[in-house]
Amino acid sequence: MASEIRITPSILNADFSHLQSEIAKIASVSDLLHLDVMDNVFVPNFTFNYESASKIIKESALPVDAHLMVADVDRIAPEYAQAGCASVTIHAEATKDISETLRAIRKSGARSGLALKPATQIEDYADFIDDVDMFLIMTVEPGFGGQKFMTDMMSKVSRTRAIIGSRPIWLQVDGGISTETIEIAADAGADTFVAGSAVFNAQDPAAMVTSLRELASKSS
Ligand code: DX5
Ligand code: ZN
Fold first, then answer.
1. Segment 24-83, tens digit of pLDDT
2. Is 31 known to be catalytic?
């Protein structure tokens, strides 16, 4: 089981017109800010171009965990690392050169993340483990917030935890994480949790982050 828990709220469901005040609500209780970058090509939705994303990264009160759901990821990922992200995650299904892109992210000073869509198997990517600082197991199809948590991804989370072994690699889950589901994911071995709608639709987003952390910590 994982011992250190990280909560990384996603601003996808936050009020984009008042982003900095939305971030301020959760900054003191969260570990990183999860920034979902979508290009309307890799996923059927668009969020930020590089210019607006870099502004958010620069102004964010929290270190930024960028989740790149973009087709042209090998070119874009190092730019996000250079823009000051603490972590940059690429999708295995989008990259044409996994090792080179993960290494370029690290070289630019960020942690390297490798994300897998629900149909993608971890065993096909275990060989890249030395270039990975975080695996992201999607628990919904990427593209939108507010979807239902896919419990059947828990076997993939457990298998990823076994592959990680004693390496200091983070194991993140993203999609449908709430007070109802976070313990299930933590029990399967996740230690880093994205939560979008659960946090930003809550009356008190900071209290929600704290509750999520307490629930996840129960199983660690
Ligand atoms: C979905 C995004 C998620 C999303 C999570 O493609 O990667 O980060 O914002 O939102 P919730 O927590 O509402 O499922
Ligand atoms: Zn995400």
1. 999 999 999 999 999 999 999 999 999 999 999 999 999 999 999 999 999 999 999 999
2. no
Q: Is 22 in the pocket of ligand 1 (CB under 6 A)?
A: no
- Asked if 111 contacts 86 with a C-beta cutoff of 8 angstroms, the reply is yes
State the Cα–Cα distance between residues 173 and 165, nearest whole angstrom: 17
Q: Is 13 in the pocket of ligand 1 (CB under 6 A)?
A: yes
C-alpha 220/C-alpha 74 separation (Å) is 35
Q: Which domains does the chain have, with CATH numbers?
A: 6-217 (3.20.20.70)
| The residue to which tokens 């994205």 are assigned | 194
Q: Which ligand approaches the C-alpha of residue 11 most closely?
A: 1
Report which ligand 1 atom has the smallest distance to the Cα of 45. Answer: 6
Is there a contact between 167 and 129 (Cβ–Cβ < 8 Å)?
Answer: yes
| Ligand 1 atom closest to 142 (CA) | 6
* Catalytic residue from among 39, 65, 133, 174: 174
Report pLDDT digits (tens) over 129-151.
999 999 999 999 999 999 999 99
